[in-house]
């Protein structure tokens, strides 16, 4: 390892590595030397690093070499920039909480995918090819032409070739659901859903003054006869379904059931909102319900659940032009548009193949994590081997609320069934999300801790008084 020395320059301490001719890439030598200096205390948090040009001149290397070295050191969380004041040694990151989060349904970080490099490359291409003024202005038509084309490309595995004009770009699926409720229903209207369903639907419906009525379901999803009866009784405007790897039960509705529900929607003239975030993660999923009743079904596909939540981009397939315009008017009332820069990045990734590569990595990682959950939870595991979550039905001696509290006391966050109840009694179960813990070893520790907890009978938990 190269040695380090400190020299004085204009009254400031300046860190200098010593490079070896046969020591490998010079930018890595600089980054490794910096890491060693921080480890042995030669450099301390708050110490200022020399400007890049100055260090490049002293080491007789290209400026790009030093820039790459500093970028690598930032990736290792060794440095922090303070604007015009320069670059400083970062304070060590402190883990303020030991909670193992099994409650948030996010895609797992795929092994072998350099997400930071992918982000840099994608944004670089966007800035190189796009009109920067267009990236910083309003887009009121549900996305640019290229964004809608990317949406049509994203939806091709489900529907084949589509007219991009039928695709609306939205700032996430939750915004799309709320806008559809506003556009297609009136205050006081009934929305039908399964007894256990996505909590975001209930939140949007409650805020907008609509009423959710639960329709009985079995292990294949909503029961057709019960849907038809509920349509006659309640005259609903919308039916909400999440048919592929349903959140939270992980049920995938078979094709026959999808055809039956589509037929009822036609007969009863009711709109179906098909919220389908996990279709691309599933192993050989059936065709979407929208393929069986294109004029009755509005289809939503979000990138947040299969690529990364930070994109906040969803594609809505809405074939009726009049309803599409009503939807856009409703969306503008609270969200206006998807952020153009995020939409442009999503478009770049979809059209250059990066999104497909990231999706494949997420899918592979999700399957590895499901195998881990199956091995650790043994007979209690009821997953299907894909998707982002497991629906864990509990032994009779635990209630879902009890287990969630007990898990929390052990530093584990899970989501109890009550959070997903849309009416009637909730199932005695919890949802376990497998993607939100980045490190597999920590995920394994959380699942093992949860398995041990399930094997015990509940103790009395009393809150501390302070």
Describe this protein's structure:
The longest helix is centred in the C-terminal third of the chain and has 24 residues, at 354-377. The protein has 16 helices and 18 strands. The protein has three domains: 4-89, Winged helix-like DNA-binding domain superfamily/Winged helix DNA-binding domain (Arc Repressor Mutant, subunit A); 101-107 and 359-455, Aspartate Aminotransferase, domain 1 (Alpha-Beta Complex), CATH 3.90.1150.10; 115-354, Type I PLP-dependent aspartate aminotransferase-like (Major domain) (Aspartate Aminotransferase, domain 2), CATH 3.40.640. Helix 2 (52-59) crosses helix 3 (63-75). The chain has a seven-stranded mixed beta sheet with strand order 6-14-13-12-11-7-8, sandwiched between helices. The chain is an alpha/beta fold and 466 residues long. The termini are far apart.
């Amino acid at each position: 390892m190269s040695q380090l020395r400190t020299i004085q320059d204009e009254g400031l301490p300046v860190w200098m590595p010593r490079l070896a001719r046969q020591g490998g890439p010079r930018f890595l030598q600089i980054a490794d030397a910096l890491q060693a200096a921080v480890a042995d205390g030669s450099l301390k948090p708050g110490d200022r690093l020399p400007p890049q040009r100055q260090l490049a001149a002293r080491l007789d290397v290209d400026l790009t070499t030093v820039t790459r070295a500093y970028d690598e050191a930032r990736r290792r969380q060794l440095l922090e920039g303070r604007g015009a004041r320069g670059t400083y040694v970062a304070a060590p990151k402190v883990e303020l909480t030991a909670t193992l989060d099994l409650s948030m349904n996010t895609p797992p970080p795929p092994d072998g995918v350099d997400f930071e490099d992918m982000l840099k490359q994608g944004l670089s291409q966007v800035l190189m090819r796009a009109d920067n003024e267009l990236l910083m202005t309003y887009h009121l038509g549900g996305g640019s032409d290229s964004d809608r084309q990317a949406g049509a490309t994203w939806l091709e595995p489900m529907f084949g070739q589509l007219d991009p004009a039928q695709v609306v770009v939205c700032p996430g699926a939750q915004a799309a659901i709320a806008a559809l409720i506003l556009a297609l229903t009136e205050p006081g209207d009934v929305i039908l859903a399964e007894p256990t369903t996505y909590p975001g639907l209930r939140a949007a419906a409650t805020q907008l003054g609509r009423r959710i009525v639960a329709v009985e379901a079995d292990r294949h999803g909503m029961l057709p006869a019960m849907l038809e009866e509920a349509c006659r009784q309640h005259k609903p405007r919308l039916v909400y379904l999440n048919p592929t790897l349903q959140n939270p039960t992980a049920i995938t509705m078979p094709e026959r059931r999808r055809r039956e529900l589509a037929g009822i929607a036609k007969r009863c003239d009711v709109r179906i909102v098909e919220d389908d975030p996990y279709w691309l993660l599933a192993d050989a999923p059936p065709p979407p319900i929208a393929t069986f009743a294109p004029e009755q079904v509005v289809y939503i596909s979000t990138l947040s659940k299969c690529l990364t939540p930070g994109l906040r981009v969803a594609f809505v397939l809405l074939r009726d032009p009049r309803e599409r315009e009503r939807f856009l008017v409703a969306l503008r009332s609270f969200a206006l548009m998807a952020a153009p820069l995020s939409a442009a990045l999503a478009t770049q990734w979809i059209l250059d193949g990066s999104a497909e590569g990231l999706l494949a990595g997420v899918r592979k990682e999700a399957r590895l994590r499901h195998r881990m959950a199956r091995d650790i939870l043994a007979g209690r595991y009821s997953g299907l081997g894909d998707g982002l979550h497991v629906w864990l039905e509990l032994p009779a001696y635990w209630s879902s609320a009890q287990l969630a509290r007990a898990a929390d006391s052990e530093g584990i966050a899970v989501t109890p069934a009550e959070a997903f109840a849309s009416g009637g009694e909730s199932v005695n179960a919890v949802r376990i999300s497998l993607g939100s813990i980045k490190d597999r070893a920590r995920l394994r520790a959380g699942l093992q801790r949860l398995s041990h907890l399930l094997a015990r009978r509940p103790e009395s938990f009393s809150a501390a008084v302070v």
